[in-house]
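Worked problem 6 (solution included).
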Amino acid sequence: MGKKSKAPGIEVPSIPAQQTDPVTSDGPSEEELNSLQTRSSSLQHKLDLLAELAIANNREEFVNQFVPLDLTPAEAAGYLADLTTEAEADGQWNTLTAEIAAITAGSKVNKIEGDQVSNAVFYFQHPLFEGCDREVAFRCIDGEWRAEG
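Solution. The predicted structure is:
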């Protein structure tokens, strides 16, 4: 039966006590401890976009979103050719997209230099090549993040 109300003749239904199991945590995973993502939401958005384009194997749009803004159309077309039609295109594409995936997730990123407002340089262990330290630089010009150099 329910509890008696202070008002005569009214019973308040009782609510069963909820069972709560204590949440146990063994702390952050090794992967979480070894990851470092940018604190810039606009840069993270760009990295997420690049990762999505890589997963979709959309090399042309990836290049359009990735290359520095000061590249000439011929230079951008040459870079796209390197990733699509040249003899080592698939290897270069796989290496590049693995790097983008790593810095997007913060995987094996050791540090990020720069103010992350106008520039950021990611230092990380290459995800495919053991013992290969890499750095990838981005610059933001008029709100648009692009690879540098």
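Discussion: Residues 3-7, 12-18 have pLDDT under 50 and may be disordered.
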